Amino acid sequence: MSDTTEVAGKNQEFTGLVEALGSNGEGIVHRGDTVFFAPYTVAGEKVKFRALKVKNRVGYAKALEILTPADERVRARCPLFTRCGGCQIQHIRYGAQLKLKSKTVQDALYKIAGIEWDVPLAVKSDNQFEYRNKLQIPVGVDKNGRNVIGFYAERSHRIVPVSRCPIHPRWAEDVIAIFAGYMTSCGVRAYDERTGQGNLRHIVVRDVDGKFLVTAVTATDTLPQSDRLVALLNKKFKTFSLWQNIHDGTGNGVFGKTFRLLHGRGRYASHEFGIHFEVGPNTFVQVNRGVCRKLYERTVRLALDSGAGVVIDAYSGCGLLTAMLARQVGRAYGIEVVPEASACADSLIEPNRLEGKLFNICGKVEEELPALLQRVDAQDAFLVVDPPRKGVDRATLGAILASGIPQVAMISCNPSTLARDLGILTGSLVETAEGLKKNRAYVPGGMPGRYAIRSVLPLDMFPQTKWVETLVLLERK
């Protein structure tokens, strides 16, 4: 509600009550027939706004003044909050963040797929700050052509300069300072997206139990005076490797195809759940180790409860979860498209005594899964699917439906694509000439030849941000 029903046009100021929060953590405010989305507000607050954009009864507004703060509002720890686009909900008390993430999953299931489900409270992260084991930070130029290292502003490629980020451990601050000093002292220019000039594009660092995989992503074939960069890193880090990745294209992807090892070891070993595994610079590992433990423990329990004799782990990354499943169930197959990650998964077999139990396939899931389902007894299998943020390929979903595999555990960091994929597997969405549409014949208890949802569990893998990890168990009807 608001203090007037007059519709606000662009740049007009108005006062309104934040009624709820949307899926991106933004406040929802109605003014007349227009619904406004306003970031960095909290449900229940009376706020003074400026309308930034209005079209087709949907608007975007900026909060100018919090007139009546909500009890859930807290002071953000980061001085760049609202400027940097990395965190969206750092101004909300942590308990309320968990409720918001549960609601985000529940709303996505209903609005996108027409699935009604009472989603429980998100599993908390034991660390709400300094939890990330990976730094991925862009390098560019400001409007004056000066080098800048920082994170993108919300919905843009404008880089906000950052020296320290509260959701990263202290080592990230050292990395940023080292690269800034290196670029200045060695005359290294940052890559300019507008002109295509310059060299250094991204800095990517993975912490593997105190051993660091540092990657400099460059637009050209050379990393100038890399020995100088190694010397600077050596002053702060006891064990590290320096990689160069060459990305000479214009796409938004962080990495190009070519990696070169300039210093140190190519991969570093770690252990979790009694499993020894290895990680390289382009190997997928969950960024929040504590929540990853909770997620993988629950996934293994679902596989054991299914009574299956074999488990297939699609999008298996470094193979840690696949190895856990192989040890507990007896036989597991991992499918991973990144050769480096698949090689890391292969290196798990011998030290963990998983010969004859763990099998890794390097290739696209949409190509390899149908073939694998022809070789194993699908009726004695349990499938784990943990895709990237874009969700599961349609061919993969078709292969799952055609296989008749009894149970599927889906893991997703994106509620929107999760809801879409669940809609296809349960039959609540059907393909039409206009695209996916809600199925009027959908039966929540399960449709013949489709899957029914048995459990939904959100986990807070990414505190202070809008993102949420979700584990869903599906059962064939």
UniProtKB/TrEMBL annotation:
InterPro entries: NA-bd_OB-fold, SAM-dependent_MTases_sf, TRAM_dom, U5_MeTrfase_fam. This is 23S rRNA (Uracil(1939)-C(5))-methyltransferase RlmD. It comes from the Bacteria. Pfam families: tRNA_U5-meth_tr (PF05958). Belongs to the class I-like SAM-binding methyltransferase superfamily. RNA M5U methyltransferase family. The gene is rlmD. It is an enzyme of class 2 (transferase). PANTHER family: RNA M5U METHYLTRANSFERASE (PTHR11061), TRNA (URACIL(54)-C(5))-METHYLTRANSFERASE (PTHR11061:SF30). GO terms for biological process: rRNA base methylation. GO terms for molecular function: rRNA (uridine-C5-)-methyltransferase activity. PROSITE patterns: SAM_MT_RNA_M5U, TRAM. Keywords: Methyltransferase, S-adenosyl-L-methionine, Transferase. The keyword S-adenosyl-L-methionine applies. The active site is at 413 (nucleophile). Residues 5-65 form the TRAM domain. The keyword Nucleotide-binding does not apply. Its EC number is 2.1.1.190. S-adenosyl-L-methionine binds at residues 286, 315, 336, 386. It comes from Candidatus Borkfalkia faecigallinarum.
